[in-house]
Amino acid sequence: MNEKDEVFFRALGQRIAQARKENHLTQKQLAEHLGIAQQTMAHYEGAKLKVSASFLPDLSRLLNRSVDELLGMTEKQDKTQRKSNFSRLK
Predict the structure, then answer these.
(1) 3-state secondary structure the chain
(2) Contacts (Cβ under 8 Å, ≥6 apart) of 68
């Protein structure tokens, strides 16, 4: 895993753990709702495993967070800003 991915998945794991705790869920309880082992959940939170994109909608629902919040993308951009960001990619 490259450094940028490591930073991203570490932050994602921390946001998941924080949201889980705020919802008074244990790793085991959250894992059971997702149909995975508690150890797998621990590895997601500790960034030892990458969280599967297919889990994001269920995590979002179970943790009362938007997918954007889980991904750390809560800042809103207006259309002008999005367009200018896209034009820089060309």
Answers:
(1) CCHHHHHHHHHHHHHHHHHHHHCCCCHHHHHHHHCCCHHHHHHHHCCCCCCCHHHHHHHHHHCCCCHHHHHCCCCCCCHHHHHHHHHHHC
(2) 74
- Identify the CATH number of the domain in which residue 49 sits: 1.10.260.40
Q: How many CB atoms lie within 10 A of CB 30?
A: 23
Tokens 């082992």 locate to 37
What's the residue count for the chain?
A: 90
Looking at the structure of the chain, the number of domains it has is 1
Q: Give pTM, 2 decimals.
A: 0.81
pLDDT tens for each residue of 8-47: 999 999 999 999 999 999 999 999 999 999 999 999 999 9
